[in-house]
Amino acid sequence: MRIVGGAFKGRRFSPPAKNWPTRPTTDFAKEALYNILVNRIDFTETKMLDLFGGSGNHCYETISRGSTDVTYVDKHYHCTQFVKKISQELDIEDYIKIIKSDVFKYIKSCTETYDFIFCDPPYGLSNLSEIPDLILAKSLLKTHGILVIEHDQHNDFKDHLFFQEERKYGGTIFSFFSQSK
């Protein structure tokens, strides 16, 4: 994996392969996503939430582009420890809050709002389709914020009230949501 833009562009990192519980976004799909986002988000003014954060890939990308307020949430101990290690190596510990928690419990207890929420749940998650409603019902997304959910062809959000668009890159689909039309 590599960081595709910003101050850390080209920096590579590899999560430990043994027993790794996540499926990281490919560099190809991530680069395409951030080419879209760079035209919609001022990262220097962005408060970001990364749900099902895995390797921390999207946190590093967002911080690399100027964000200084990023929250990472994942329930897996080895993932949170890996993100802590990489954040120390990149000297970005002041910019990232690392929270070891079940994402659904975090959503229920969270009182913050975010400009950009990235959510990369396991593709086979039985309640994946409920995630946009849970996030929006808790008002975690600011009025003009952007929610992006990474998923595969087994989920379709096109009929959701706040769905904006969908982008496909191989087997990866990014669905964009916003409360402002």
Secondary structure: elements and pairs:
Layout (H helix, E strand, L loop, with lengths): L26 H11 L9 E5 L5 H8 L4 E6 L2 H13 L6 E5 L2 H7 L4 E6 L11 H7 L3 E11 L11 E7 L2 E6 L4
Parallel strand pairs: 1-2, 1-4, 2-3, 4-5
Antiparallel strand pairs: 5-7, 6-7
Provide the CATH superfamily of the domain at 47-172.
Vaccinia Virus protein VP39
Oligomer: single chain
The assigned CATH architecture of the domain at 47-172 is 3-Layer(aba) Sandwich
Coarse shape:
globular
Strand content: 25-35%
The run of helices and strands is: HEHEHEHEHEEE
Explain what this protein looks like in three dimensions:
The chain is α/β, with parallel strands linked by helices and 181 residues long. The chain has a domain of 126 residues: 3-Layer(aba) Sandwich (Rossmann fold), CATH 3.40.50. Helix content is 25%, strand content 25%. A 7-stranded mixed β-sheet has the order 3-2-1-4-5-7-6, with helices on both faces. The chain is globular, with a radius of gyration of 15 Å.
